[in-house]
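Bug: token stream looks shifted between consecutive jobs. Job 1:
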Amino acid sequence: MMSPEWAGALGRYNRWMNDKLYGLAATLSDEARKRDVGAFFKSIHGTFNHILLADRVWLARLTGATVPDGFMAPGGIRSLDQELYADFDELRRQRTLTDGELSTWVAGLTDASLAAPIAFMRRGHKQECPLWWTVAHVFNHQTHHRGQITTLLLQQGCDPGVTDLYAMLREENAPAS
């Protein structure tokens, strides 16, 4: 089972990597970020968009937000390939806000809440599982797609450097100079 401390580390890693990759992507032109390079979500922008969209869908489920019929999450989300923000700066601002919401939600987790069941609708079917399964999935999903973004950035000459969770944990625990 996952502990609240482990969930917190995953939340911090999420923010750390998003800051790093969005910062690198900001050095590219809008055309370069949106160029269809045959990735699953076509482009760097499209992949960033998908991660944000999926996080909002999961946050709605995790927080019990009211979602109108025909929608997957608040904010008019209807499909996993829907573009939320065409403007990169707005996409980045919204990513930062969503990372804050995720961090706040994760900060309230306890051993008991992680072990408790969560029920939600997914693709028209009721799903139920221990909450920690869902938390692990959310952060694993982000990591999977950020790996794709890392490759797309490298193909454009932008090296994100070390992206390991271990590197972030070492950075957090380095003695102050």
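Job 2, same session, no restart:
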Amino acid sequence: MFHRTGCAILLVALTTACAGLTGERVVVDGAGPDELLKLRSGPSLGFGIIMGLPDGTELYQRDCVTEVGQRWCEVSLVETPQVTGYVSADYITPL
């Protein structure tokens, strides 16, 4: 009996953990036709740039934080979810 219960608990825990990896779908909006939104390694301008994201790039949004008056959201790319970082919340819109 413990074995079945333990597996059920593990399955629920894994499902819950995996569900939290995706987050809400958002899209890069407002960077401009000739600009790219900077995906950064941390939540401020002081962190390094991982890559630039053009308008229309779909992301999974996770938690957001406010640093020095600017709201930053942790995101991952829909096409390549292993690519994660932070973007300014001013440039993402829910799908």
